[in-house]
# Entry
Amino acid sequence: MANTATEPDAKAPAGDALDRQLLLGRPHQRHGGLWLTAAIVLFAIFLVGYSLVTNPRFEWNVVFGWFTSERLFTGLLRTLGLTAISMAVGIVVGVLLALARLAPNAIVAGTAAFLVWLFRGVPVFVQLLFWGFIAAIYPRIAVGVPFGPEFFSVDANVLITPFMAAILGLGLNEGAYMSEIVRAGLLSVNRGQTEAATALGMRRFAILSRIVLPQAMKIIIPPTGNQTISMLKTTSLVSVLAFPELLYSAQLVYSANFKTIPLLIAASMWYLLVTSVLSLGQFFIERHFNRGGIISGRSPRRPRKPKAANARTTPEEAQP
# Structure
C-alpha cells in the first residue's frame, strides 16, 4: 500500500528537496576561535596560579602571619578613620562649594569656582606636602584683629600635626571633586519643580531638602561611592607625612625585617577586603535610592503567568 503522505515529497523536484533540507537544518556555527580563546585564558590563569602557589619568594606564611598582626590592624583602623573623616570634610566642603557656585552672587560663585580650580589642579600629593610643611610659610598661627591686636597665637607645628595635615590635604582636595558631583546632581533636577514649589509658598531650605536633594541623590550617590573607594586608596599617600596608616605601618615593618614583598601583599589584601565591603555597601545604598526605578544592570521582572490548574487542560477548555 502506497503512503499518500509522502507522495508530494516524492514527486517534488530534487532542487526543492535540497533547499528544504538546507532551511530545516541548523546553521553551521564555528566555535573553534571561541574554544581556542577560552583555552588560552584558562592556561594563562593556570600559569599565574601555579606561580603564586609554587614560587617560594612570595612567602605566604609570612604574608598570613603579618596579615592579622596587631601593627597592620592598627594601621588599618587609622586608614579607615582617615578615610571617614576626610570624606566627611570633602562632602561638607563639596556641598558648600556647589551651593556657592550656583548662587546668584557673582563674587561668591567666582570664588568657589577659583577654589575648585585650585584644589583640582594641584596634585593631592603636593597638597599634602604643603600642609605638612606649613610651618615653613607660617611659623605661628595667630587669631586677632587684622592689622590690630593679637589675642593668642600657637606654633604651627603644634596645631598642624601629621594627622591634621592629612585631613586638610585629603578633605579639601576631595571637596573640589565632590562639589562638581553635587552640582551635577542639583542641575539634573528640573527647574520647573523649584518654581512650582516657590509658587506654593515653600521656603528655599524646604525646597532644597524635600524636593531637590531627594531627586539629586540618584545622581550623587554612585560617584560618591567611587570617591570613597578612591579615598581609601589615596590615604596611602599620607605615608609621606610619616602618619602610621596601613601602608606606612607595613613600611615600618619591612624596613626592619626586609620582608618587603610579603608585607606589601598583606597590606594589599587588606585594601582589597575593605574595598569589597565598600562596594557592597554602595550597591545597597544605590538600590535604596533607586526604589521604584530600574536597578542598573538588571531588567525589571516580568509578571509570572498563572499556572493552569490541570496541565492536561487545553487552552480552549481553560477559557470561560
User: Anything to note?
Assistant: The two ends are 45 Å apart (CA to CA). The chain has 14 helices and two strands. The CA atoms of residues 2 and 14 lie 20 Å apart.
